[in-house]
Design a protein that fits this description.
Helix 1 packs across helix 2 and helix 2 packs antiparallel against helix 3. The protein is built from seven helices and no strands. 61% of the residues lie in helices and 0% in strands. By secondary structure, the protein is mainly alpha-helical. The chain has one domain. It starts with a helix and ends in a 5-residue tail after the last helix.
Amino acid sequence: MTDAASHSDITRAFAAHDVDISMFHHAAHVRVAFDLLEKCDFIEAAATYATGIRAIATKAGAPMKFNLTITYAFMSLIAERMAARPAGSFEEFAAQNADLMSRDVLERWYSPERLHSDIARRVLLLP
């Protein structure tokens, strides 16, 4: 999925909680977060995103894959970057923020043990 229409499709599928988990890689997570933040304020976008991620993980039979800390920390980081340096498109945003395309970017602030702990799955932990 590289063109704008495909990205809109993934965001629509996400909103319907109808995402093929095998196609929902990290870059697609970032894209959906970007789209939601363009459309809604942070509180609404973050709640929609967390609800969707949890529903998709549960539907895929992997509810323990949902991690509240990772979800909200990534959403916050994406929102911060969008506010600091607005981009005209997701592709421009991704090029300006290549580090966000790495799943381990949050390890700059969190230890892997803290980030992947059982409590981090249920409670938003601060770094």
